[in-house]
Specification:
Strands 1, 2, 3, 4, 5, 7, 8, 9, 10, 12 and 13 form an 11-stranded antiparallel beta sheet that branches. The protein has a two-stranded antiparallel ribbon with strand order 6-11. It is mainly β. The longest helix is centred in the C-terminal third of the chain and has 7 residues, at about 170-175. It contains 1 helix and 13 strands; from the N terminus they run E-E-E-E-E-E-E-E-E-E-E-E-E-H. It has a single domain, classed as Glucose Permease (Domain IIA) (Distorted Sandwich).
Length: about 180
């Protein structure tokens, strides 16, 4: 399993290589997506088309870290759920986000969507229709919905309501890292 570690300075460590200042995902020539977790974090579960349509990210922080918008966009959907650590698949049933708990979906200018799931209860700071800038805090990492622990489930989709439209964010991070010297 490939692990991507970020420290407080937004340095990315991929295996034995270090790149700064932050990873980017490029799905279109006009957008570059930043890392969705503020602070030190690690990918614990990779993308697997059809079975796990995103990546899971945990933090080494003792508090719930902020989750940030990966690119400018408009808040397209906000779903809330009262379940915590619950395998009951009734959260957001029929929405394409079943068991994701507290979820925010942002529509970007290239018509892709970033999806942030399992957010901390009552931490969501945005509403449907809000315009957000890259790096804006949208909520905090949590454990809502069907979740075994505090983490962010992060997806990029081309069709919001179709989980099968998800693309692997890790591939874009590992292939599209930009080196910027300080």
């Amino acid at each position: 399993m490939q692990k991507i570690l970020l420290d407080q300075k937004k340095t990315v460590i991929i295996k034995s290589f270090t790149v700064s200042p932050e990873p980017t995902i490029s799905l279109s020539p006009t957008l570059t997506f930043i890392w969705p977790v503020d602070g030190s974090s690690t990918v614990t579960q990779n993308f697997s088309k059809g079975t796990h349509n995103g990546i899971d990210i945990i933090s080494s922080s003792t508090t719930n870290p902020n989750i940030v918008a990966v690119e400018d966009g408009t808040i397209y959907k906000v779903y809330t759920c009262t379940h915590i650590n619950n395998s009951d698949d009734t959260c957001n049933k029929g929405t394409g986000f079943g068991a994701y708990g507290n979820v925010v979906a942002i529509k970007h200018n290239d018509n892709t969507y970033s999806v942030y799931a399992h957010l901390l209860k009552d931490s969501i700071k945005v509403n449907v229709g809000d315009k957000v800038k890259k790096g804006a805090i949208i909520g905090q990492m949590g454990c809502s919905g069907w979740s075994d622990g505090i983490h962010l489930h992060f997806e990029i989709r081309t069709v919001l309501t179709d989980p099968d439209s998800a693309v692997n964010p890790s591939l874009y991070i590992s292939k599209k890292i930009i080196l910027i010297s300080k």
